[in-house]
Amino acid sequence: MLETGFNYNFDFDIAAIVLLLFTMYHIIRKKGVGQNANNIYLMIVLAAFISAVGDIFSVVAAAAAPDNFALQDFWNYVFLGVHNSMPYLFLLYVLQLFSISLKYTKRQFVLIALPYLFVLLLLATNNFHRKVFYYDFLGMYEHGSLFVVLYAIAALYMVVAIILVFRHRKIFPLEKRMPLILFIVLGYAAVVVQMFYPYLLIELFFQSLGLLGMLFNIENKDDVINPVTGVFNRYAFVNRTTAFLGNANAVEIAVALPDIYYYNSTVGAVMTDMLMHEVAQWLSKRDRSLRCYDCGNGHFALCGVDVEEDVVERIKEEIFERFLQPWGDRDMQTFFPVRVCSMKIPEEVSTMENLLLITDLVFSGKESGELDVSQAIEKYERRISVERAIKDALLGRRFQVWYQPIIERTTGEVHSAEALVRLFDDELGFIPPDEFIPIAEQNGSILEIGRFVFEEVCRFSRDSFVKGVGIDYIEVNLSPVQCMSTELVNTFDEIIKKYELDAGQINLEITETAMMENKNQFMQNVSSLLNLGFNFSLDDYGTGYSNISYMFDMPLTIIKIDKSILWRAISPVDGTGAENARVVLENSIAMLKEMGYKTLVEGVETKGQLKELQRMGVDFFQGFFYSQAIPSDGFLNYVREVNI
Fold it and tell me: Are 405 and 602 in contact (CB under 8 A)?
């Protein structure tokens, strides 16, 4: 143990110097991350190092030259001036780390610095008033009456810092906040210990331990840098942009490449990583005011504060021009189409949800282009509203089932009907099925909707005695999601029994897409439903894979030809059409009839179309020429007028 004549023990200061040298080496040697918070952290470490050196030399000077007060003063001023900068720097570090400083003006930063400037003023004038420290008649170093002001100002900075840490705790996870709290706790613990043991110089050692914890848990670049591209990762992007949402001068330029997994499968993962590294490094050098983030899957973001609009436009032009050129080396060069958009935060994008939405939007196009941010957000918000409407409609059983008549060729009467689900919302009004059904399929609510529709059709069939007005059956559409459900058969069986119906009164419509999804589960469900007495129709023939081999295995009775084929062959507007489309239509009908199927054509809207389809021998017709889908009461009235 090293001691001086005054019995000050600076072994802990020496240990602190060792830890601080290690910390500085780690930062300077492996830094690689240019950001203000990192630079301030390095300043704190340097201040602690200089303080430890000053603390040791002040003690040594007092022991070696007890009468040389000028030398002792110099090292005491170095120690006190630099050491008291640490609380001030720590507060700046917290402000930068949590991006709170983005909201501050220069005047506010001056106000923050005033307490520390007052400390420097006290030290600069200490030789005149000797109120900070002095030497007693024995030449012993003593604290003056104003020394407590140094502690008070340090405490003020630390208290403000800890309040900010807790107030903005949502920005950083607990494991990132704990080192900040630990640094403050260790600093105060050391002060308390030195109050009782003034000659035990442990304060800087404790603080160096706190700085070491911050190094490994906050300043560790592995947490914020993507190892492949060498730029900031998604975690850093979310943390940074969370602060941007409260700042009126932030901007993001989102850059998206298409289907990065395609390139993985074609040029290989190693080459794709090299290309992504090249793209990221090029983007990171566009402008010093913008920081580049790799948000994953070929999506990048350039973010900054107080970036001029002309700079943003220039960078977007540079990006489009660069992506006209190939990426890679001479042995392997690849062209990437690119989608770019810029957004002001929070003026144009005010929530993290929308910010990530724009940044992560899948780009599947073949040509470069610019994304309209407002349209993308509007589309997303519309989707959220529709999802809410679906949920409310399911809870309140407010879906409606309408029926579109199907006419038989030989009799001209309503033979059957297709049940079509309708959604009316108090806020959104009528929501088209081609909008809400895909959303329901994606979020899984289509299973509940399908059950509701099936049960409503069964209830309607029982209560309205549709058999008595000439309706043979009602067709119910099955989505691909329903066809894959292991609960489908039991659900339909329970409902049929509940309403005491013959399963033959329901015709289940399936699509080619459903047949392709999971053939084993699909065929298992179809076989079980067939055993219960259900019949099957193939819907939208001609829009999917049109693979005849799948039809061989299916117990289909009716093939419904999609309206797109009819309209190309015979336009509902002027009756004209493409000759090859007419050939496809006519030969498809002939082939299907030859195979033993009944044929139904959807989308019949004109008398001319009807006459041609009658000539071709189509069995059933469905379309606006007869009737659009109508509510159950109106449907029954329509059937009575036509059939009776």
Answer: no
CA dihedral sign, ordered 101, 103, 104, 106: positive
Q: What are phi and psi of 364, to 5 degrees?
A: -110, 10
Backbone angles phi, psi at 123, to 5 degrees: -70, -40
Q: Exposed, middle or buried by CB within 10 Å (0-12, 13-18, 19+), for 238?
A: middle
The values of phi and psi at residue 574, to 5°, are -130, 5
Distance CA 287, CA 304 (A): 10
Name the β-bridge partners of 172: none
pLDDT of residue 281: 94
**φ and ψ at residue 3, rounded to 5 degrees:** -135, 155
Residue bearing tokens 């006190």: 80
Give the contacts of 544 (CB within 8 A, at least 6 positions apart).
511, 512, 513, 516
In degrees to the nearest 10, what's the CA dihedral of 289, 215, 31, 15?
Answer: 130
Q: What is the DSSP letter of 100?
A: G
- Tokens representing 96 are 């930068």
Q: Which of 309, 336, 307, 301 is nearest to 320 (CA)?
A: 336
- For residue 134, the cross-strand partners are 142
Distance CA 82, CA 529 (A): 82
Average pLDDT of the residues in 240-269: 80
CA–CA separation, 632 vs 221, rounded Å? 65
Whole-model pTM?
0.64
DSSP 3-state assignment of 6? coil
Closest CA to 515 of 526, 505, 504, 506: 526
Q: Tell me which residue has tokens 């914020």.
A: 224
SS3 (DSSP) at 512:
helix
**Which tens digit of pLDDT belongs to each residue from 132-173?**
998 887 778 888 999 999 989 999 999 999 998 888 776 666
Taking the C-alpha atoms of residue 525 and residue 519, their distance in angstroms, rounded to an integer, is 10
Q: How far apart are CA 400 and CA 539, in angstroms?
A: 21
How many angstroms separate the CA atoms of 148 and 115, rounded? 13
Digit-coded pLDDT (tens) for 452-509: 999 999 999 888 777 778 889 999 999 988 988 889 999 999 999 999 999 999 999 9
DSSP per-residue letters across 390-455: HHHHHHTT--EEEEEEEEETTT-SEEEEEEEEEEEETTTEEE-HHHHHHHHHHHSTHHHHHHHHHH
CB 112 within 8 A of CB 91: yes
In angstroms, how far is the first alpha carbon of the chain from the final one? 113
Give the span between the Cα atoms of 383 and 567, in whole angstroms.
30
**Residue 5 contacts residue 63 (beta carbons within 8 Å):** yes
According to the per-residue pLDDT averaged within each range, which of 322-326, 346-350, 377-381 is highest?
A: 322-326
> What is the number of residues in the chain?
644
CA distance 24 to 215: 10
Residue 6 has pLDDT above 60, yes or no: no
Nearest to 293 by CA among 282, 302, 281, 305: 302
Q: What is the mean pLDDT of residues 625-643?
A: 92
pLDDT digit string, tens, across residues 281-326: 999 999 888 989 999 989 999 998 888 899 999 999 999 999 999 9
What's the CA dihedral at 134, 137, 139, 144 to 10 degrees? Answer: -20
Specify the residue for token string 């059904």: 437
**How far apart are alpha carbons 576 and 568 in whole angstroms?**
8
**Beta-strand pair 414-425/506-511:** unpaired
Given a contact cutoff of 8 angstroms between Cβ atoms, the answer to whether 554 and 526 are in contact is yes
